[in-house]
Specification:
The chain is of the alpha+beta class and about 600 residues long. The protein contains 15 helices and 17 strands. It has helices at about 1-55, 65-75, 110-115, 155-205, 220-255, 275-280, 295, 300-310, 355-390, 400-430, 440-460, 480-495, 540-545, 555-565, 590, and strands at about 80-85, 90-95, 120-125, 130-140, 145-155, 260-265, 270-275, 315-325, 325-340, 345-355, 440, 465-470, 475, 500-510, 510-520, 565-575, 575-585. A hairpin with a 4-residue loop joins strand 6 and strand 7. Helix 4 packs parallel to helix 5, helix 10 (about 400-430) packs parallel to helix 14 (about 555-565) and helix 12 (about 480-495) runs antiparallel to helix 14 (about 555-565). The longest helix is centred in the N-terminal third of the chain and has 56 residues, at about 1-55. It starts with a helix and ends with a helix.
Length: about 600
């Protein structure tokens, strides 16, 4: 605004200065001319008076001395007085001797006075040594020409007056210019102050401070401008509040919707993800924002689906089966292009509906009968076959009878275990299932479990090593924790060759207790890891069946770990062994909630 004030004051000052200077240039000569005319008029009147005095005093008739009369006139008038006869000879002179004076008949003022009665001229006088204003009047005596009287006034007085006039004009105009400039400055400030205030508010509005207001003032144009700015600020505040409210609602909706949402712009850059995506992909999806989708999404099926939506620019829907960690999850994925008003593609939006549970339920319905029938068919067939064999006469042979009865007993035990584990799994999956929360010493439970399975391990010449760090005490159900240990260690014994080694580790951490069961068994590939917790799934069916396994142990472990709100992970390499890791919480999660 200083620049604005400068651009306003400088032209105004120049205009005022030019106007005053022009006015001074007009008034200076006007006053000078006016004063000269007054001086000439005065000189004419004094010359007429001096002529009358000479004519009436009798000096021309010789009654008195002309020199004396001229000297008296010069003293009274403070001027040079010269008296001439009709021939132009000087008869009286107040500034020099008459005898030394030249004939003045050729002087302009004398020539003019001789023809017109009066004459006037301005010139430098050698006698006086300065410039004089001369005025000559013809003298008469008894109606006849008797000579001339000439008055001479120095122009120094005129120059002094002219100088005083210009000094007065300059000083007056400078004072006027200063007063005008001061008032113009104040007026400019009064005009600019509302504009400065409006500019300040406009800058604040541009920075997003919509609470800023300006003084509205009167009904002038600036007052209307400031009122408009205040109204604009109020409207922006209302619009911003509405926008923020809608934004908060939309963010709350997006962040808390049960489906994953990904927004990708036309360049393939991920611009928006919601919190559900982090749960779906089990990754830190916050770091995906601003990255190209194919650099951060490692699942080829999802990338192919995204490319398909980009290429077709049409709505697409697919059901994808994707491995997430150790689990296989199913998603109903919807993809839709974002088309601008001009018809150009601005990006795409993806919505992931997790239908894993529905798929599991659907698959469970399909597989339950087949799996249970298959698992029950083997022991039932064995029982029926050996019973028929015994009834067919084999019971007469003591050796055969004992062998078959032992097989029947083993198959009965297997059938009983299968039915028990099915009932246990069903019980664990029931919504009414609850844990008996207590303080569980994991070290004591591990020692008791190892003692129970020591004979089975010794039969395969295996060594079970227990290691612990700190005090592995957690909050859980003792019976269910021992059931987890039993299934994990038994599973390690089954899938570890003879002379192998099993290590049970227990680590106390800040707010967790970590259980690890590591074996040196056959291991498994990455694609098998997500399936090992399915019912009746076996990595090596022959080995598991020969050991009496039902294929339900790890499914029970998974559900019990989830009931304890513990995190279950698996690391395995074919031929190197497998490590099951469960991170229990020290405190009761339900009690904390």
């Amino acid at each position: 605004m200083n620049s604005y004030r400068f651009r306003l004051l400088v032209p105004l000052s120049l205009i005022v200065l030019i106007v005053l200077a022009g006015l001074g240039l007009l008034l200076g000569p006007f006053f000078n001319e006016f004063y000269v005319e007054r001086m000439e008029d005065r000189l004419a009147k004094e010359a007429d008076t001096a002529a009358y005095h000479l004519e009436s005093s009798g000096a021309l008739a010789g009654d008195n001395s002309i020199e004396t009369a001229a000297s008296e006139l010069a003293e009274r008038l403070d001027m040079r007085v010269t008296v001439l006869n009709t021939d132009g000879d000087v008869t009286a002179e107040t500034e020099d001797e008459e005898a030394s004076m030249d004939n003045h008949s050729d002087r302009p003022e004398i020539i003019e006075a001789a023809s017109e009665g009066t004459g006037q001229a301005t010139r430098y006088s050698d006698t006086v040594g300065r410039e004089l204003l001369y005025y000559a009047v013809q003298l008469e005596e008894d109606g006849e020409e008797a000579g001339f009287i000439r008055l001479g006034m120095a122009t120094d007085e005129l120059q002094d007056v002219n100088s005083n006039i210009w000094t007065f004009i300059v000083i007056t105009f400078l004072i006027a210019f200063t007063i005008i400039l001061v008032f113009a400055s104040k007026l400019t400030n009064e005009l600019i102050r509302p504009i400065e205030d409006a500019r300040r508010v406009a800058n604040q509005l541009a920075k997003g401070n919509y609470r800023s207001r300006t003084y509205e003032g009167g009904r002038s144009e600036t007052g209307e401008l400031n009122r408009s700015l205040n109204m604009l600020a109020q409207n922006l505040t209302e619009i911003t509040n509405t926008y923020e409210s809608q934004k908060e609602r939309l963010e709350t909706l997006i962040e808390n919707m049960g489906s994953g949402l990904i927004l990708i712009d036309e360049k393939g850059t991920i611009s928006l993800l919601n919190r559900t995506c982090r749960e779906i992909f089990d990754e830190d999806t916050d770091s995906w924002q601003g990255e190209l989708y194919y650099n951060v999404i490692t699942h080829k099926k999802i990338n192919s689906f995204i490319q398909e939506v980009f290429l077709t620019e049409e709505r697409e829907r697919k059901q994808l089966k994707i491995p997430i960690g150790i689990y296989i999850r199913h998603f109903d994925v919807h993809g839709a292009p974002i088309i601008a008003k001009d018809g150009n593609l601005k990006g795409i939006v993806l919505v992931f509906h997790d239908i894993t549970e529905l798929k599991k339920l659907e698959q469970a319905r399909k597989d339950f009968v087949a799996n249970v029938s298959h698992e029950l068919k083997t022991p039932v067939t064995s029982l029926k076959g050996f019973t028929e064999t015994l009834l067919g006469g084999a019971m007469e042979d003591p050796a055969m009878r004992e062998k078959f009865i032992k097989i029947i007993a083993d198959e009965s035990d297997r059938l009983e275990t299968l039915i028990y584990e099915l009932l246990e799994l069903s019980k664990i999956e029931d919504d009414q299932f609850q844990l008996d929360w207590q303080q569980v010493n994991l070290l004591e439970e591990a020692e008791a479990t190892v003692n129970m399975l020591s004979d089975k391990a010794e039969a395969k010449s295996m060594k079970i090593i227990q290691k612990h760090e700190g005090e592995p005490v957690l909050s859980g159900d003792p019976a269910r924790v021992r059931q987890i240990l039993m299934n994990l260690i038994n599973n390690a014994i089954v899938y570890t060759p003879a002379n192998g080694e099993i290590t049970v580790r227990m680590k106390e951490q800040a707010d967790q207790v970590v259980l690890e069961v590591e074996d040196t068994g056959i291991g498994m590939s990455k694609k098998e890891i997500p399936r090992i917790f399915e019912r009746f799934y076996r990595v090596d069916r022959a080995r598991s069946r020969n050991s009496g396994g039902t294929g339900l142990g790890l499914a029970i472990v998974k559900h019990l770990a989830e009931a304890h709100q513990a995190k279950l992970t698996v690391d395995s390499k074919p031929g190197k062994g497998t490590t099951f890791r469960i991170a229990f919480q020290k405190a009761d999660p339900d009690a904390e909630a």
